[in-house]
Design a protein that fits this description.
Blueprint lengths: L7 E9 L4 H13 L4 E6 L3 E3 L10 E10 L3 H14 L14 E7 L4 E2 L4 E2 L8 H10 L4 E2 L3 E2 H7 L6 E2 L2
Antiparallel strand pairs: 1-4, 1-5, 2-4, 3-4, 3-10, 6-7, 8-9
Helix pairs in contact: 3-4
């Protein structure tokens, strides 16, 4: 699918801290390529970060991807959740360990606030492990209702983020 009229640019955050996290995130990136009517047009490097949430978790591997899609936001979210499920994602502990986490961060310049989906992702501006990979693939991005990505990243608290490799 080429980027054309009728497509929207969406950004997805990826993360894992279970069952070979680098392998999980790489597999997640490949799975994004298989979503119908969607093409992955950019992906960030992978980063390590300390976990948020309950203590005793392993560090996370994080990244971001840019998608051009003809799907609606809720349909894309359902596809992302299906990929998570296929990778053994269990939602037992809030902010707990996970095999694969796929967050719909942005969907064009839309603001969406439903029971199932909130875009921009509600906590993305306080998470350097989301903002840094996003900045790598879309440095000029403006986050609806929040401002320039460069400013948000500059003001974001550190989570001891390190680029892998």
């Amino acid at each position: 699918m080429s980027a054309s009229a009728g497509t929207i640019v969406a950004y997805v955050g990826l993360g894992s801290n279970l069952e070979e996290p680098v392998r999980q995130v790489e597999a997640g990136l490949r799975a994004l390529e298989a979503i119908p009517e969607t093409r992955c047009t950019a992906r960030s490097s992978l980063y390590t970060s300390e976990p948020m949430g309950p203590p005793g978790q392993s560090d996370y591997i994080n990244g971001a991807a840019e998608l051009h899609t003809r799907l609606g936001a809720h349909d894309l979210l359902l596809r992302l959740q299906a990929i998570e499920q296929a990778h053994g994602r269990k939602r037992e502990i809030h902010w707990g360990p996970r095999t694969l986490d796929l967050d719909l961060l942005l969907f064009g310049q839309l603001t969406i606030d439903t029971a199932l989906l909130k875009v921009p992702h509600p906590c993305m501006c306080e998470r350097d492990f989301v903002l840094a990979p996003l900045f790598e693939i879309a440095p000029g991005l403006n986050i609806p209702g929040k401002g320039a990505l460069t400013d948000l990243l500059r003001d974001c608290p550190s989570n001891h983020l390190k680029r892998c490799g």
